[in-house]
Amino acid sequence: MFKIMIIEDDLTIARTISEHLSQWGYDATCVTEFHNVADQVLRAEPQLVLLDIALPFYNGFHWCSEIRKFSKVPIIFISSASDNMNIVMAMNMGGDDFIAKPFDLHVLTAKVGALLRRTYSFQGQVSVLEHNGVVLNLNDATLTYQNHKIELTKNDFKIVQLLMENAGRVVSRDEMMQRLWESDQFIDDNTLTVNITRLRKKLAEAGLEQWIVTKKGLGYLVE
Description:
Structural class: alpha/beta
Keywords: DNA-binding, Phosphoprotein, Transcription, Transcription regulation, Two-component regulatory system
Radius of gyration: 20 Å
CATH class of the largest domain: Alpha Beta
Number of domains: 2
Domain OmpR/PhoB-type: 126-223
Number of strands: 12
CATH architecture of the largest domain: 3-Layer(aba) Sandwich
Domain Response regulatory: 3-116
Distance between the termini: 19 Å
Largest sheet: 5 strands, parallel
Strand content: 15-25%
Oligomer: single chain
Strand order of the largest sheet: 2-1-3-4-5
Protein name: Two component transcriptional regulator, Response regulator protein GraR
Shape: elongated
InterPro entries: CheY-like_superfamily, OmpR/PhoB-type_DNA-bd, Sig_transdc_resp-reg_receiver, WalR-like, WH-like_DNA-bd_sf
CATH superfamily of the largest domain: Response regulator
């Protein structure tokens, strides 16, 4: 699960953002003490930071500069001070994007997802795959969705990984069986059906009843 730190002193806004991102499967936390924001980022090790400009004690530009001394974590500025000078300053201090208040929460979520994909999905060693709030951890073979953590068997993991790597595209049964058993030997077609059925039961218990879609005569996909 991607961990997102929200550095926003308006607690109503911060909680609203946190609750919305949590609905999309992110682990969102809000900073409530603003004396030393950089230390909190260092300890929490988030995968993305949402940072307001107008903060108590020191502004967002200062904290962005401090964070950049020890971390390359993606930073999105969120601020009503959205004139060109502030946007340029945010980028020069090390910010990766800027969203002007007031903003649509769905637009914010889309930008968060896009920046996470650019930052983590295309690096040499990918440790997680994410699609529509579902996060697959490639290191420990677990699937997370809305605070539900699903332990996957070896075959579960291979199925989910293949589908997420090809999100939006139908994966044929032959392709899936080749990935699962990595052999040209004949495998009973019913064996794949049994594996898919067992996996779907686990997913349904976490609220993902229709996550794997069957395309009759073609294969499976996640949309």
